[in-house]
Amino acid sequence: VQLQASGGGLVQAGDSLRLSCAASGRTLSSFTMGWFRQDPGKEREFVATINWRGNVVAYSDSVKGRFTISRDDRKNTMYLQMGSLKPEDTAVYYCAAKSGLYISRIRSDYTYWGQGTLVTVSS
């Protein structure tokens, strides 16, 4: 499966932004999905994950209550709705897919990765 992340941009602190991850090659309905982010010079970190049915989600403590992950398998697309953005949310955001039924916060569990989309939050 090929993944394409989009929707990044430059926003101000407190703004909202929605990222999309479109899949091609295979249907997303059989995959558990996740969002990760990476600052230059830092390791890629977990942001959010959603299981194949869309009824189980998990978030990192840093985004819980501000970000919402969702999926629309009819459109073969996953989303990350980001609200109350902070300068520390600035990063390249990557979407990823893994086989299997269970969510995961572990980067190495994910097999397929999109190219990333840059989110910059100014103060």
Plain-language structure description:
- This protein has strands at about 1-5, 10, 15-25, 30-40, 45-50, 55-60, 65-70, 75-80, 90-100, 110-115, 115-120.
- The chain starts with a strand and ends with a strand.
- Strands 2, 4, 5, 6, 9, 10 and 11 form a seven-stranded mixed beta sheet that branches.
- It is globular, with a radius of gyration of 13 Å.
- Helices cover about 0% and strands about 50% of the residues.
- By secondary structure, the chain is mainly beta.
- About 35% of the residues are buried.
- The mean pLDDT is about 95.
- Strand 7 and strand 8 form a beta hairpin.
Order of helices and strands: EEEEEEEEEEE
Number of strands: 11
What fraction of residues sit in β-strands? Answer: over 45%
Give the N-terminus to C-terminus distance in angstroms. Answer: 37 Å
- Helical fraction equals under 10%
Q: What's the total helix number? A: 0
Task: Tell me the structural class.
Answer: mainly beta
Poorly predicted spans: none
Overall pLDDT: 96
Keywords, separated by commas or semicolons:
123 residues; mainly beta; globular
Can I get a quick summary?
Helices cover 0% and strands 51% of the residues. It has 123 residues and is mainly beta. The strands form 2 sheets. Strands 2, 4, 5, 6, 9, 10 and 11 form a 7-stranded mixed beta sheet that branches. A 4-stranded antiparallel beta sheet has the order 1-3-8-7, with no helix packed on it.
